[in-house]
Amino acid sequence: MTVAEPLDLLKQNLDEKIFVKLSGYREMVGKLHGYDSHCNIVLGDAVETIYSLTEEEGKLTSEQKNHTLVFIRGDSVILVTDGENL
After folding, report:
1. What is the pLDDT of residue 33?
2. Which alpha helices (H) appear in 1-86, and where do they start and end?
3. CATH class for the region spanning 8-80
4. In this structure, which of 31, 34, 43, 61 has its CB flanked by the most CB atoms within 10 Å?
């Protein structure tokens, strides 16, 4: 299957692991269960990583949260790619 339109990438990866970069220093990896034309995404067995920078030391830290099922609002999506190399 070829990618003719942007959402074709999502169609090709239904029921596969994908990586989603989000606004607010967050990213998620999980199994793509569904999406729509607004790029709203539903992921299952997802791992959310939240990054933060400490002011006093200037160190980058991260926290991970597991989600059984999560809805990602399309206006927070910055990048979507397959999870093949994760």
Report:
1. 97
2. 8-12
3. mainly beta
4. 43
